[in-house]
Amino acid sequence: MKIILMGYMGSGKSTLGKALANAKNIPFIDLDDYIAERENSSIPHIFKTKGEIYFRKKEAEYLQELLQNPNDFVLALGGGSPCFGNNISIIKTADATSIYLKYQPKNLALRLIKEKTHRPMITDINDDELEDFIRKHLFERNPFYMQADCLITMDNLSEDESLRLLLDKLANEPII
Fold this sequence. Notes:
This protein is of the alpha/beta class. Helices cover 55% and strands 12% of the residues. It has a 5-stranded parallel β-sheet. α2 crosses α3 and α5 packs across α6. The longest helix has 26 residues, at 43-68.
């Protein structure tokens, strides 16, 4: 079983992905970490030295590579991964279950304010403008996120509740 977690930054893809992988006793892979390792460079450095177009091409290449691997794993995508190139098609045609971890913009903003220093995309955005920034991004990205096989509304759930809900959904959903 391959499980793909998608959603906006701060939606818990990595945290929940690690917990899910542990519960399923399968490896966890963060796509950005995988890209950085394969490229022997950090994501910010790739963007700075080679540009976003290069990064997005490599992102699609490594996504395809991972999803063609016969082994089971939980894969956390970058927030924008499903939205570029033909990545959503790669995800939809893979032998995997994709899950959208959905939050309301207000709750994402509250979560991300605490992490701004570690999130280059939002570091320079004023706290009072962050929710509108997220709302705009979600408007653009939701058509891609909504193509996931399964949606889990994460608002007001603890990490343990999120994991239980995700495990329950996976147990009850037909796995592709």
